Amino acid sequence: MQYKHIIFDLDGTLIDTEEAILKTWQNTLEEYGYQYTLDEIKVVLGVTTQIGLERLNAKVDDNYAHRWQENYEKYAIEAQFFDGTKEMLKALKEKGCILGIVSSRSYKEYEKYFSMFHLDDYFTYKVLEEDTVKHKPEAEPLLKYMEIAKAMKDECIYIGDMPSDIQCANNAFMASGLVTWNKSGVICDEAKYIFNNPTDLLQL
């Protein structure tokens, strides 16, 4: 393998949560008097709640995060691994790769909504929302990963499904990979690699 550290985003990359997230945003914003289509809400994907609200120009109160969490519980059960991703993670570990997570999710969300996927069986390191001041597309989350993993940038590749993931990797001077197996139609010419199928990663 060309890279020792294979670092992944979660939502839309390994776990199919897009519809659950979009419906949650839509329902929660309706409580604040906003009417958005699911397509309009897609600008929130891959970023923190605060950045998502700024992109939608939505004004909410301090209770928004709590209401969002309550609404997400209605849809979280729909989330599942994308076909082939769990097998890919197992194969990468067997090849001796060190696997990591860099996500905009909070620790509370990670424990509550992702524990059923037993991700800690695969991943050695994770960087979540609370670990950094700045977030994707800034480099800080990946710089934090390299700090805690004692990794060099040339040993690492960051793989995600959104332009913000690719920009984060590029800002950290790290190799980047865009996944298309989620059928989202997202295009990012800045990505070093395009992965159409989880098995493509095994050829790195």
Describe the structure in your own words.
- There is one protein chain.
- With 204 residues, this protein is an alpha/beta fold.
- It has 2 domains: 5-16 and 79-203, HAD superfamily/HAD-like (Rossmann fold, 3-Layer(aba) Sandwich); 18-78, DNA polymerase, domain 1 (Orthogonal Bundle), CATH 1.10.150.
- The chain is built from 8 helices and 8 strands.
- The strands form 2 sheets. A 6-stranded parallel beta sheet has the order 5-4-1-6-7-8. A two-stranded antiparallel ribbon has the order 2-3.
- Helix 1 (18-30) crosses helix 4 (64-72).
- It is globular and about 50 Å long.
- The termini are close together.
- The model has no long low-confidence stretch (mean pLDDT 95).
- It holds the Pfam family HAD_2.
- This is HAD superfamily hydrolase (TIGR01549 family).
